[in-house]
């Protein structure tokens, strides 16, 4: 077992939000190629690169997503997940879901050899 | 946006390990019904209930899994993921993968109304 980092990635406050998912678009607002299978998401306010721990209480599944896009522009929704992340969370059939999110702050100091 | 907890879930050291996945078995070593679609995993040593942040460097995907079983009993492998988690990480075709794991320690003090 090779230790990589001793960095701390901590999830602070946890919030209950409404999220949808999307699977179209060529380029994200951050300028990346959009990967519909990726674990990424759009937020109106969070800085690009922000990592969120996202939990679907209905399935008990949790994933980490990275903000790389802007949206959703629909009242009452706080996050728009790329389809890959939505699939992993088990919310495709629902289309819109209430999810728990917690922002990960990490100060990774790599000490790998 | 409803704040749920101010608990801290932090991921401390991160390790590089070899993992496989499994999809059979009725009951886990912790006595639960085994859910092959779940985000759970088997470890020879970690206590049941331990939550790990698991990242697949090959796909860049990260999920949270909960330890609820014992294994794998194969030299050189440190973790056996339930198929659901392995699918989300994109390691089904590989069968065995090198993954990054970090143990989540959470002191969740729920302050929901």
From TrEMBL, chains A, B:
<keyword id="KW-0456">Lyase</keyword>
<dbReference type="InterPro" id="IPR012997">
    <property type="entry name" value="RplA"/>
</dbReference>
<dbReference type="GO" id="GO:0008932">
    <property type="term" value="F:lytic endotransglycosylase activity"/>
</dbReference>
<comment type="function">
    <text>Lytic transglycosylase with a strong preference for naked glycan strands that lack stem peptides.</text>
</comment>
<protein>
    <recommendedName>
        <fullName>Endolytic peptidoglycan transglycosylase RlpA</fullName>
        <ecNumber>4.2.2.-</ecNumber>
    </recommendedName>
</protein>
<dbReference type="GO" id="GO:0071555">
    <property type="term" value="P:cell wall organization"/>
</dbReference>
<dbReference type="GO" id="GO:0000270">
    <property type="term" value="P:peptidoglycan metabolic process"/>
</dbReference>
<keyword id="KW-0961">Cell wall biogenesis/degradation</keyword>
<dbReference type="InterPro" id="IPR034718">
    <property type="entry name" value="RlpA"/>
</dbReference>
<dbReference type="InterPro" id="IPR036908">
    <property type="entry name" value="RlpA-like_sf"/>
</dbReference>
<comment type="similarity">
    <text>Belongs to the RlpA family.</text>
</comment>
<dbReference type="Pfam" id="PF03330">
    <property type="entry name" value="DPBB_1"/>
</dbReference>
<feature type="domain" description="RlpA-like protein double-psi beta-barrel">
    <location>
        <begin position="18"/>
        <end position="99"/>
    </location>
</feature>
<dbReference type="InterPro" id="IPR009009">
    <property type="entry name" value="RlpA-like_DPBB"/>
</dbReference>
């Amino acid at each position: 077992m090779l230790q990589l980092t001793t960095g701390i990635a901590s999830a602070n406050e946890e919030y209950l939000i409404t999220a949808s998912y999307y699977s179209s678009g060529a380029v994200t607002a951050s300028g990346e190629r959009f990967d519909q299978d990726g674990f990424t998401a759009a937020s109106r306010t969070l800085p690009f690169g922000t990592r969120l721990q996202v939990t679907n209480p209905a399935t008990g599944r949790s994933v980490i997503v990275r903000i790389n896009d802007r949206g959703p522009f629909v009242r009452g929704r706080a996050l728009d997940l790329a389809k890959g992340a939505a699939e992993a969370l088990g919310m495709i059939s629902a289309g819109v879901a209430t999810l728990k999110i917690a922002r990960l702050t990490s100060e990774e100091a790599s000490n790998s050899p």
